[in-house]
Amino acid sequence: MLLNLEKQFRFVNVVIHIICVPVIMLCMLLLGTLAQPLFPVPEAVAIESFPPNLATVAGVVYTILYILMEPVAGALLAPLLLAGTAFVNHLSSTHGNTAIYWSLAVQAVAWIAQFVGHGVFERRAPALLDNLVQAFFLAPFFVWLEVLFSLGYRPALKARIDKAVEVEVARFNISKKGLSPKAPQK
């Protein structure tokens, strides 16, 4: 593997994604703590780590939608996502603007690494430029699936996703050459 440049580039790009995508997500959630409470919560049911701000709502929505998309993988990710949401709420309430400034700096570094990873190792623009839903909603879950797949999770699902990715890469390469891509054959 060390002498196979393509595998090495893929490995480096996967590592960049596995590190940077969750960091970007947590930093975005931290920025969501700046929002005022979105709705009142009775004190009897309020949870200090989960105030009704944009970060908490986003963390809960992501968790629910990930579980709906792929129940086992989503359920395995849920505790990490909710712990991350609680953590950013804690950072914001404890450190205030200092946490926000650090979040912006860390996020900038992570975004730069992502753009370098895409430009150098994939030789294409990041998904952010193609599809915001994919970049901000699906990317964290795809990274999680990549980790699970490396541990042997659902090989048949991995094979289907790999095939779909190959089709999309081929379509991208054709469109880059100025040709009209054909619809995939079933």
UniProtKB/TrEMBL annotation:
Pfam families for the chain: Mpo1-like
Gene Ontology cellular component list: endoplasmic reticulum; membrane
One GO biological process term: sphingoid catabolic process
InterPro entries found in the cross-reference section: Mpo1-like
Keyword terms, alphabetized: Membrane, Transmembrane, Transmembrane helix
Bilayer-spanning residue ranges: 12-35, 55-88, 100-121, 133-153
Protein name per Swiss-Prot or TrEMBL: DUF962 domain-containing protein
Organism in which the protein naturally occurs: Coccidioides posadasii (strain C735) (Valley fever fungus)
